[in-house]
Amino acid sequence: MNEAELRALFDEIDTDGDGRIxxxxxxxxxxxxxxxxxxxxxxxxxxxxxxxxxGVLDFDEFxxxxx
Length: 67
Prior knowledge:
Blueprint: H1 3-13, H2 23-32, H3 39-47, H4 59-66
Helix pairs in contact: 2-3
């Protein structure tokens, strides 16, 4: 996935447009992509990319998550 595709996906998940993905937006993004089953576990794993531990993913953290 190139930088433009990553940005487009980030912006799609960031539904409130604040430049950060919170846990609710992340869960909704997983659901939209067809994730089923252990959604809470997947969200928890993804939030491990929150390097500064502020409870949200900024674009750099999101990029790291998807590498």
